[in-house]
Design brief:
single chain; about 120 residues; mainly alpha; Arc Repressor Mutant, subunit A; two-stranded parallel ribbon
Length: about 120
C-alpha cells in the first residue's frame, strides 16, 4: 500500500488506511519523528529535487528557503514555489522551512505551521 500524490483512489478500504493512520497519530503524539511510508511523488524534476532536500531536514530543526536554495542550486523564491505545490506537508515537512525574516508561508496557514513547529519543539 502506498500513497500517490496527484492521483485519486476510489474504493479504498479502512484496513488499507490503518498503517498511515497509525503513523500520523504517532507523529501528533510525539512518538514518531519521521512520517515515512511508501509514496509516489508526482511533480516536476525540480519540485522533487526541492522536496527531497526538505525531507532531509531533521525533526524539530529549521532551515531557510535560502539554505534549501543553495543546496539545490536555485533561488529562495523558486523553492517557495515548489513548496507551495507540496501536497503532503507532513511527509515533505515544509513547515520546517522558514524565511530569513520570519515564518514564511504555509499552504495550510500560519496557525498550522506554528502548531507543527511547537509540536516538534523547534525554536523560531
Amino acid at each position: 500500500m502506498s500513497i500517490s500524490l496527484g492521483k485519486t483512489f476510489e474504493d479504498v478500504e479502512t484496513k488499507d488506511v490503518q498503517p498511515f493512520k497509525e503513523i500520523l497519530e504517532g507523529y501528533f503524539k510525539g512518538n514518531i519523528r519521521t512520517v515515512n511510508f511508501p509514496v509516489e511523488i508526482v511533480g516536476t524534476e525540480f519540485q522533487r529535487k526541492v522536496w527531497n532536500e526538505v525531507r532531509r531536514v531533521p525533526y524539530g530543526e529549521l532551515r531557510t528557503y535560502g539554505w534549501i536554495a543553495k543546496m539545490v542550486g536555485t533561488s529562495p523564491r523558486a523553492v517557495g514555489m515548489a513548496m507551495k505545490r507540496n501536497k503532503l506537508p507532513l511527509y515533505i515537512p515544509c513547515h520546517r522551512i522558514v524565511s530569513k525574516k520570519g515564518l514564511g508561508g504555509f499552504s495550510a496557514g500560519f496557525e498550522w505551521k506554528e502548531f507543527l513547529l511547537e509540536l516538534e519543539g523547534a525554536v523560531i
